[in-house]
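pinned: reference chain
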Amino acid sequence: MAPSPLALLLALGAAAAALAEPLRFVDCGSKDGSIQEVNVSPCPTQPCLLHKGTSYSINVTFASKIESQGSKAKVYGEMLHVDIPFPIPEPDGCKSGIQCPIQKGRSYSYLNKLPVKSEYPSIKLIVKWELVDDQDQMLFCWKIPVQITS
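pinned: its structure tokens
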């Protein structure tokens, strides 16, 4: 007996939901906001395996505790407690899913890409992602373990 279209749709929905599983992350100093969820896609298990030459989707849901005209992202690879800046295509949070000005008490979905360049070494490290407000205070900061691989 063939499965019904509804059963197939439910199975596909469950598979898609499994790919977008919220990550376990460490909050590293979110002062002006509170993180509700962090998603990196695709990253079905941790540490996230980041393949060279691939871009990963980042989605952070957070609530703002302050008003801010703008926001700026800073991304680092942390090795031996040293932060090495990672370039991202769009550091402006207002061009990354956040409707600015940011309002106190509102929730936002921050969307960005993490490109993993081919020339990066194959290593384990911590990705540290910060979003600062217009006073350079942290709206959010999170860290996850990753492994860069070929």
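why pinned: Residues 5-19 form the longest helix (15 residues). The longest strand covers residues 138-149.
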